[in-house]
Amino acid sequence: MNDQPTAARVLVVDDDPTVSDVVRRYLERAGFAVDNAGDGPTALALAALRSPDLVVLDLMLPGMSGLEVCRRLRRESDVPVVMLTALGEESDRVVGFETGADDYVTKPFSPRELALRVQSVLRRTGRGNPDAADAGPLVDRDLSLDLVARTAQRAGRPLALTVREFDLLVHFLRYPRRAFSRAELLQQVWGWTFGDQATVTVHVRRLREKVEHEPQHPRRIVTVWGVGYRYEPEDSDA
Questions:
Q1: Is residue 11 scored above 60 in pLDDT?
Q2: How far apart are CA 136 and CA 129, in angstroms?
Q3: Taking the complete model, does pTM exceed 0.85, yes or no?
Q4: Residue 70: what pLDDT?
Q5: What per-residue string of b and e applies to 42-76 under the rule 16 or more CB within 10 Å gives b?
C-alpha cells in the first residue's frame, strides 16, 4: 500500500510553449503534478476532467482571454488562480483580482518565484498543514468559518470566497477591533513584503459585498481613515 501523500495538481495555461515548459519543469521539480493547456477551452476541459488544486493562468490567451477563463472557472469552483501577465498596469491587476484571481505574477518572472507563490497559495488552503485540524470555527453572529473544511456561511447559506478572501476574513475575525494598514494586511495575509496595496482594497471591497448587510455602508469591515481597515464584530452592537 502506498501511503505517500498525493501531489498537488497544478494546471498551467499559457499559449507560449517555452514559458509553459519552463513553468512545468520548475513546478514538477518542486513536487507538483502538472497539466498544460495552450488555450482557454482546453484549460476549462482539463479543469473539469482533472480537478486541479491550483491554476496558473496567462492573461493574454488567443481566442478566449485569461479573464474569461477565470470567470468561467469561478462559476464552477473556488480553485485558486495565480494570474500570469505581461501587463503591469494597476488597472489590469485590479481587473484580475475582481475576476477572482488569488495572486498575480508579472512577466518576465522568475520560475523559482512562481513556484514559491504557488506553494504559498496552496499552503493557505490548509493542504499539508498539520495545524489545520486543530483549528476551531470562527463565528460572528450569522457569519461562521470552518477552518478545517475552509468553508464559510452567512445566515446558514454558503459563501463563495476565493482563497485570499477566505484568508483575509480569517485574519479579520482572529483580530477583531484592531486596525491594520494595507501594508500590514499585504504582509500578514498575502505574505508579501512589498506589492501593490490596491490588491488589499479590491479584496476588501469584494469581501464586503459578501459579508455585509449593506456593503455601501459597512459595519463589519470598517475603514479607518488614514490607516486601513478594522473588523467590528456584530456581537459588539449595543
A1: yes
A2: 14
A3: no
A4: 92
A5: bbbebbeeeebbbbbbbbebeeebbbebbeebbee
Q: Are 181 and 228 in contact (CB under 8 A)?
A: yes
Q: Which residues of 84-113 are buried (b: 16+ CB within 10 A; e: fewer)?
A: bbeeeeeebbbbbbebbbbbbbeeeeebee
Calculate mean pLDDT across residues 188-213.
Answer: 88
Q: Which domains does the chain have, with CATH numbers?
A: 9-124 (3.40.50.2300), 132-236 (1.10.10.10)
The angle, 0 to 180 degrees and rounded to 10, between the axes of the packed helices 198-211 and 163-174 is: 80
Contact 167/175 with Cβ under 8 angstroms?
no
User: What is the mean pLDDT of the segment spanning 6-15?
Assistant: 87
- Tell me the pLDDT of the chain averaged across its residues: 83
Rounded Cα distance, 236 and 238, in Å? 6
Q: Give the strand pairing for 9-13 and 33-37.
A: parallel
